[in-house]
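dumping this here before i forget
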Amino acid sequence: MPVDTKRIRGPEESQSPLLFLSPNKIPEAGSRQGSRGNGDVRPVFVRCGLISQAKGSAYLEAGNTKIICSVYGPREIERKDETDMKTGRLICDFRLAPFSCIKRGAWIQGSEERDLSATLLESLQPGVCLHRYPRSQIEVNIMVLENDGSILAHSVTCASMALADAGIEMYDVVLGSALRQNGDCCLVDPSYTEECGNWQEGYGENQGCVTVALLPNLNQVSGLNADGEMRGDTLAGAVRTCMDGCHKLYPVVQQALIRAVKRKAPPPEK
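structure:
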């Protein structure tokens, strides 16, 4: 049998590298890794206008979470009906890169990505003036380059910035914030380990994850996604904490959009 000399042959016996990972555990109050407190968010880096082929684009980094978004349109809808004639249509496509997670995924969109696409659409739609774009559609494409937790919340922020960079009329920017509840301890902007810790046993009593999408100037919640088992007062407190996190993020997004507008502005006449 011929041997492929160009292929590097691996050892006959091998083990998955996932076996050497430390078990996921939720830290208790005051024991979060690093100097970040339970109510602190990770440092955020945002920039607009990186994809030249798109009408608008944005890139966001929060710790090791890296997300890029592109916006195309408004463009004419091919198949028109009575609903499309009155208002525009917003389309959201959420994708996880195959190399973004610990376990490599596939390029084909899975059920989790379809659910995240629908949730992203519900969060962004109240902030976009779709009545200003009749008979047209606006496409929002999210690609998660590295998943280190809170991807839905940061995707909402990144998509909102890309829509603003594309010049789409909006009532307000939409910002996202996430929280991991572990008993009486809540972790704002959780990492992947904090978000998925103890997943083998499932959520226990008064535990879960909450993601809030907020219009900061209007102080209105446009999207809420909760998973787990939490008491009513705990869920209400988690929503308030996420809203405070959105307000803390707003100055960073505002400065990034101002810098993007200045770059696009024509030079002053001499």
